[in-house]
Amino acid sequence: MSYRPNLLLIMCDQLRADVLGCYGDSLVQTPNIDRLASQGVCFNHAYSETPVCVPARHGLLSGLYPFQLGLVENCPLSAEITHPLPEMIRQQGYTTLAIGKMHFSPPRRHYGFDRMILSEEIPSHIQDDDFLQFLQANGFADVIEPHGVRSDHYYEPQVSPLPEEFHTTAWTAAQTCEAIRKNRNRPFFVFTSFIKPHPPFDPCKPYDTLYHPEQIPTPIRVEGERTTNDYLIDVQNDYKVNGVDKMTPAQEARIRAAYYGSVTQIDAQIGSIFRTLEECGLVEDTLVIFTSDHGEMLGDHYAYGKRTFYEASARIPLIVSQPGTLPMGERRGQLTILQDIYATLLTASGGKVPESSCGFDLQQAISDSGATLRDEIYGEIGRGPAAKMMLRWGDFKYVYHVNGGAEALFHLGDDPDELQNIAVDHQDLCSEARKRMVRHYADHAFTEVLDGAELLRLPKQSHTPHGYLDQRPIWPLTVVKN
Fold it and tell me: Both ends of the chain: CA-CA distance in Å?
């Protein structure tokens, strides 16, 4: 049998690429992730096609476009995943483990994982969540929102009530280290998924004061800018922030400082995983991929959350490393998506990528910086007036909003911050982008965004504010009382 590496996939939740040192940030401390980049290949143009948790994760898991599973929002699947990644890898003789947040429904739907060790964001039953049981067993039964207080405190900077070693970030890393040690003598696939830096932003001490608000760069936006055409941004701002226009610069700086602290806390725990690989002598025998399911707007363009195609939301980090086998300290400019991780890991395990998959083995681009994986990326999210689609090609990004048919065109080479919508001046490019979208969605039978030979257009409407979403925990009701 030919050589097959161990496989370690590390995913963060809601981590935007540009807050990492290896992606150009000079403030946020991420030495361990930066070290991984120095020992591998960074992809500069990786995207989450449907930038929200459930579609992004299931797109990676299945190797399919999320809309092929009925996923354009956080909702149940409408189609079965026929070739799930962990099952395909397990068939190659690997031990497969899921650690941390998976966001499956039901939570322990294993998809081929031999074992699932879960810490979910909003668990409904304590029996489904290993981290909650860990807290209960260690005297923290009174902490019913261990990932931060949500509802009307969703974007309020917080300090975790848990000591660092009991935080979900440390627990997820510790479980990963234990899995590596236990399986060091047989091929393993470990999918480690951190809940953070998803809000609430609740870093432990000392990460809560690591970044001073006066250090924090202000959000990227044009004075007076409002994203009134982006229905989903208005929805998110309403039920998660509820007053983005009323925030003071000091409040925004504190939110960013807490987010940065969460990122550095994750980086420290990722360092412990890398040390375990070193102690076990597995660094050169393990293919490591680091990524995120989507980004976080952090006030850019007067938006918080994800669910939009601005770079802060849709662009993600993607690092592939295996010292001694792959190039080190190099960068690639190909357009890449989460489904490419599916193809890369499956191929590395010795498996064959199904013809139905839209993913490409990243080894092609790693071996040849000039190799073309794809010429364009499509993205789609939302339904009804909230629906919007993206086409990314060359230096351009085009976004079409079903709500009123609004459109945006950005030249990222000249305007990386997406501050100048040049659609009005380039209607020829916009028209061609719409035609390409129609062909793509018609070819894949995604007809809900089409109106005959045109993209669907609905009369423009505004979001009606409803206020904060009730996200109070319900899992305590499932604890058996003695």
Answer: 54
